[in-house]
Amino acid sequence: MLNRRNVLAAGGLAAGVLGVPKLLAPAEGHEDPAHGGHTPTTFQESKTFSGTKPEIVPWTRPMPVPPVLRPVVSTAKQEVYRLSIERTTAEILPGLQSPVMGYGGQFVGPTIKAKTGRKTLLLVHNKMDEAANVHLHGGHVSPEHDGHPRDLVEPGRTRLYLYPNSQQGATLWYHDHSHGTEAAHVYLGLHGAYVVEDDSERHLNLPSGAYDVPIMLRDIQFDDSGNIVVFDDPAKRTVVLANGVPQPYFEVAARKYRFRIINTATQRVFQLRLTGGQVTRIGSDGGLYAAPVEAEEVVLSSGERADVVIDFSKYPVGSRVTLTDSVAGEVLRFDVVRRASDPSRVPAVLRPLPALPPSTVDREVDLFYVFKPNERPDGVINGKVFEMDRVDFTIKRGTTETWLVKSSDPAGVKHNFHLHLVQFRVLERNGGPPLPNDAGLKDTISVAAGETVKVQATFTGYTGRYVYHCHFLEHSWIGMMAQLEIVP
């Protein structure tokens, strides 16, 4: 049974995760009213392969670049897209088609490219036999288009989402947010990249076009027969995927590339390094840094993003440069295969951050578990399990607030924190300066047990209800989510 002791053992503390075994979930398809939704599917229909699990041979498959979704209508002010939600299959292990879910019928959804000041209209049709939705993670959108956990696209129905793209250029992503099923749906493939391009960045002359590449990293677990295991100890998710492929290679020219790295795992922290060199980090969740930073390591918890530039001109043609993770080891190999001209650059000044306005409200957000004898723990924020109809914070539109985000869980347990609608700035971590990975505009940050992180946000734009939660989605599934309402 799941209790305090084996919860802390589950997942392996070195991996910084917490296991939520599927055996303790209510029966599949039954309501879980204590947590505001349906329980995640265990995806038993994936049990279609019997035999020996195919062996993963590193560097034998190329890393695909997800296709860019093409609009069905394009005008000077807006672009209209169609996107399906489907059950499909994907070749994750070599030679084996695994049942998955996908936006546009793809295991890694198509990339949507938007422009600042130009609207995106997204017509989403659900072809599955269960409800799902779309949340634009990091998007500044009205509440009815945010993908609220209760705002679902039912089977066979079509839903219109409107994204104004009023924010500056940034690497965002879209994923399912149907409460009670969000963890399983995202794990099974309902996610894709959403890139907001800002014309004001053109003068910077950063790498662009074919040299601007999204990389979605995540982990996954297979059983001995090669079937996908949805909920088990997350430490057993030992296979790491880059754009849906385990240990792929990616051919590059000897020039600068911009990589938009997105941690789409439901419960993992990546600690990334480049063999034989550093990366130049130029941006975070909400867009460009004020200035580039040379980094030996990039740390991303679930949902976080990093824009980095790697200059392959320093490597001879024929070189092989590997991206590694502190736990998983080698994740992705870059093969330098040719020379190329390179008009791009990384200027010393990127986008100065605006001055912080004065804060008028202080709040506290505490993420932790409530353990119960022989039962699944509750994930809570400030001692409360998420309820759809409860408002936890009421915020006046236009005000600037300071939130002290912390976790009072025992040592070894990790969470993170994601705030919908707005980006924030990290002011302090544990009473001292922010970590390098806290820099820039953020919407998601890591919060280890015993840590305190002070952030500041200005709630401009819309009125209505939005959620904030732990973005380890197995944690939000068991209640670690709360709701704010912005009022005039």
TrEMBL record:
The answer to whether keyword Phosphoprotein applies is: no
Where does the Plastocyanin-like domain start and stop, copy by copy? Answer: 85-200, 254-314, 365-486
Gene Ontology molecular-function annotations: copper ion binding; oxidoreductase activity
Gene3D superfamilies with a match to the protein in the record: Cupredoxins - blue copper proteins
Which PANTHER family has this protein been placed in? BILIRUBIN OXIDASE, CUPREDOXIN SUPERFAMILY PROTEIN
PROSITE patterns, sorted: MULTICOPPER_OXIDASE2, TAT
Q: Which organism is it from?
A: Lentzea xinjiangensis
The EC code for this enzyme is 1.16.3.4
Q: Name one GO biological process term.
A: cell division
Q: Name one Pfam family in it.
A: Cu-oxidase_3
Q: Which reaction does it catalyse?
A: 4 Cu(+) + O2 + 4 H(+) = 4 Cu(2+) + 2 H2O
> What is this protein called in UniProt?
Multicopper oxidase CueO
- Keywords assigned by UniProt, alphabetized: Capsid protein, Cell cycle, Cell division, Metal-binding, Oxidoreductase, Virion
Chain spans, region Disordered: 26-50
Segments of skewed composition (Polar residues): 39-50
Subunit field text: Monomer.
Similarity comment: Belongs to the multicopper oxidase family.
